[in-house]
């Protein structure tokens, strides 16, 4: 099993088997993140496909895991998608397959009050649906990829101060909205 | 939020607070109920997000993603670029091979371009000639006057 750098090198050389291995390994995770970022299945699938295409064109330097690097590409692609006039026109029709109502999407392994105790779990897409797209992006990069403020600023192409303020507002929103789960 | 140190609490939670400021903030959090609650909530929010299940990749979408070939979009372009590079190299080699060998000695006269560069233009030539003519006329005049004086 090649390591991340070797896998990226093989893919750049056009090794189909290596590419299939990457898709098999990372597509489920990337799709889950994409759904949390854009909300609907069709856009999420497009985003993952664009991410793999971007990974082929870009150069992985091994500074982070291949997965973190791919998520960085995915988040940037989501930003580009959001700014495209096509997406803005279609947004009312495509935005969020899932509703933003957390009560409807709680995954509970034990009966009773879903909002109490560790048994109740919200899925990520539902949790982040309450946030703006910009706030979803910083939450994903910080909480799931463990990026520093500087890394997030570089990945999103925004100043570090903006990263911090977005992160604080996003957390405040989550804190208020999911107080019953904390 | 009334405490002015909440930003530091976020940075502390993210491991972004400079090491020199950590101890002071920890002492503050221990004494400030608001910051203490904030830090506990930030930790809980992080856990909630990290434990949140991701949406499942539908089987049909997985099949479609497995079929995508990102290099096919660029393959044509890369092939054409390769051909153009090979053609340019071939033209350069042929041009070098066909260049006539100059057998004339190194001490041959100036090349045409050298002559053209150092030769003054027609205007300048006319000007230089007219100055010579004027000088000659003045010299002639002076010599005539002197001759006249002698007479």
- The H-and-E topology of chain B, N to C, reads as HHHHHHH
Classify the helix fraction of chain B into a percent range.
over 70%
* Mean pLDDT score of chain B: 80
Uncertain ranges of chain A: 98-119
- Strand tally of chain B is 0
By CATH, the architecture of the largest domain in chain A is named Orthogonal Bundle
- Give the total of beta strands of chain A: 2
- What is the 3D shape of chain B? elongated
Low-confidence stretches of chain B: none
**What would you call the structural class of chain A?**
mainly alpha
The average pLDDT value of chain A, as a whole number, equals 82
Please, how many domains of chain A?
2
- CATH topology (level 3) name of the largest domain in chain A: Rna Polymerase Sigma Factor, Chain: A
Q: Assign the CATH superfamily of the largest domain in chain A.
A: RNA polymerase sigma factor, region 2, helix turn helix motif
Summarize the largest interface: chains and residue counts. A-B, 46 and 35 residues
Helix content of chain A: 55-70%
Strand order of the largest sheet of chain A: 1-2
Radius of gyration of chain B, rounded? Answer: 46 Å
- Through-space gap between termini of chain A: 40 Å
The secondary structure category of chain B is mainly alpha
Main β-sheet of chain A: number of strands, strand sense, barrel status?
2 strands, antiparallel
């Amino acid at each position: 099993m090649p390591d991340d750098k070797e896998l990226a090198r093989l893919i750049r050389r056009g090794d189909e088997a290596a590419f299939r291995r990457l898709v098999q390994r990372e597509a489920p995770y990337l799709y889950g993140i994409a759904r949390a970022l854009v909300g609907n299945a069709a856009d999420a699938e497009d985003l993952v496909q664009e991410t793999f295409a971007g990974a082929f064109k870009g150069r992985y330097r091994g500074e982070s895991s291949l997965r973190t690097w791919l998520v960085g590409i995915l988040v940037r692609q989501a930003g580009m998608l959001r700014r495209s006039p096509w997406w803005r026109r279609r947004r009312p029709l495509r935005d969020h397959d899932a509703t933003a109502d957390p009560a409807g999407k709680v995954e509970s392994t034990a009966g009773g009050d879903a909002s109490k105790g560790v048994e109740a779990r919200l899925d990520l897409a539902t949790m982040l649906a309450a946030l703006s797209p910009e706030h979803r992006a910083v939450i994903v990069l910080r909480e799931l990829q463990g990026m520093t403020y500087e890394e997030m600023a570089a990945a999103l192409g925004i100043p570090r101060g903006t990263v911090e303020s977005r992160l604080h507002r996003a957390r405040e929103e989550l804190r208020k909205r999911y107080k019953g789960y904390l | 939020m009334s405490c002015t140190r909440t930003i530091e609490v976020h940075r502390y939670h993210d491991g972004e607070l400079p090491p020199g400021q950590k101890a002071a903030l920890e002492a503050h959090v221990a004494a400030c109920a608001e910051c203490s609650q904030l830090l506990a909530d930030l930790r809980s929010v992080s856990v909630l997000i990290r434990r949140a299940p991701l949406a499942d990749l539908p089987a049909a979408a997985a099949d479609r993603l497995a079929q995508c070939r990102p290099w096919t979009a660029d393959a044509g372009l890369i092939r054409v670029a390769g051909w153009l590079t090979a053609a340019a190299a071939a033209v350069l080699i042929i041009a070098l091979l066909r260049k006539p060998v100059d057998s004339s000695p190194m001490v041959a006269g100036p090349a045409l371009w050298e002559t053209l560069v150092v030769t003054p233009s027609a205007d300048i030539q006319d000007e230089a000639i007219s100055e010579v003519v004027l000088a000659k006329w003045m010299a002639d005049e002076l010599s005539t006057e002197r001759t006249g004086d002698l007479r």
